[in-house]
């Protein structure tokens, strides 16, 4: 059994017991999180597709921790002006363990 949810403009494939890194939310570790925007649901031979989302379905999870993502390096170079700029960025994510998919 799995579902595809939408959160923060992105889509994630989730299953019970899976760990998903979503965009950072202001909540403490151990708090419950609900994802009401379920786009797709699959269980054995049962398939449901939302238009755009499925009504009366949601995914429940528990916040595990807040983490940094991988470092991304940005380099800007202008060839004729002898100008260089190097910057780095690490995005914050919230790690969520999926508890259940509620039909």
Structural commentary:
This protein has 103 residues and is mainly beta. It has a domain at 2-65 and 95-102. The protein is built from no helices and eight strands. The protein has strands spanning 2-7, 10-14, 19-23, 32-35, 38-43, 46-49, 58-78, 83-102. The protein has a four-stranded antiparallel sheet, with no helix packed on it. Strands 3-8-7-4 form a four-stranded antiparallel sheet, with no helix packed on it. A hairpin with a 2-residue loop joins β5 (38-43) and β6. The model has no long low-confidence stretch (mean pLDDT 95).
Q: Class by helix and strand content?
A: mainly beta
Number of helices: 0
Order of helices and strands: EEEEEEEE
Beta content:
over 45%
Cα gyration radius (Å): 19 Å
Low-confidence stretches: none
Mean pLDDT: 95
**Widest sheet: strand ordering:** 2-1-5-6
Annotation, overall tally of beta strands = 8
Helix content: under 10%
The biggest sheet amounts to: 4 strands, antiparallel
Furnish the topology, listing elements before pairings.
Layout: E1 2-7, E2 10-14, E3 19-23, E4 32-35, E5 38-43, E6 46-49, E7 58-78, E8 83-102
Antiparallel strand pairs: 1-2, 1-5, 3-8, 4-7, 5-6, 7-8
Summarize the structure.
The protein contains no helices and eight strands. The protein is mainly beta.
List keywords for this structure.
four-stranded antiparallel beta sheet; mainly beta; 103 residues
């Amino acid at each position: 059994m799995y579902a595809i949810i939408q959160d923060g403009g992105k889509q994630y494939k989730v299953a019970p017991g899976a760990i998903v890194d979503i965009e950072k939310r202001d909540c403490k570790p151990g708090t419950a999180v609900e994802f009401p925007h379920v786009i797709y649901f699959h269980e054995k031979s049962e398939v449901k597709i939302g238009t755009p989302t499925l009504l009366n379905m949601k995914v429940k999870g528990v916040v595990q921790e807040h983490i940094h993502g991988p470092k991304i390096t940005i380099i800007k170079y202008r060839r004729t002006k002898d100008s260089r700029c190097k910057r780095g960025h690490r995005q914050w994510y919230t790690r969520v363990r999926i508890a259940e998919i509620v039909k």
